[in-house]
Amino acid sequence: MYKLLWIMLMSVVWMVMHALQTDEEMAMHALYQGKHAVNRAAHAAAQQLDPAQLAEGHLYIEEEAAAEAAVHYLQQNMELDENGDPLPGSYFQEGVELLAVDVINDGVSFPYLYRNNLYDYEVTLDKPGVVVIIGLKYPRVFSVLPPIEWTIKGTAELVGG
């Protein structure tokens, strides 16, 4: 009789451990999707050149257009509404917070060391570029566990010039 109870207890433990592992794998999938979306947003933002400056031979990224492109790409790639909340059917369950969109233009000397101490990010840019930082939260399956929170960072710089 005690062996039967032991087997039932171990089955419950095994199922809980399996559910925790599955939850962890789903969280990693959310992180990868978020990182890919941030990279795409940074690349899209870095493409927003000022045509007047370009006509004069200067690579200059329009800051407002870059921020709009980054937000648009995040919304499209992460299936978010205009407030950063997930749309129905989105993989994400919590809203995404856009923490920073920083444009580095030719007003600095390159190579330029970009530092953001608030989000513990440092990158060296050889040309004008854009840095995008978001906050992403993944709620756990088991409500007794706290949600996983990430600060996802991405950078893109211009290729030409």
TrEMBL record:
Domain of life the protein comes from? Bacteria
What is the protein named? Uncharacterized protein
In which organism is this protein found?
A: Paenibacillus phyllosphaerae
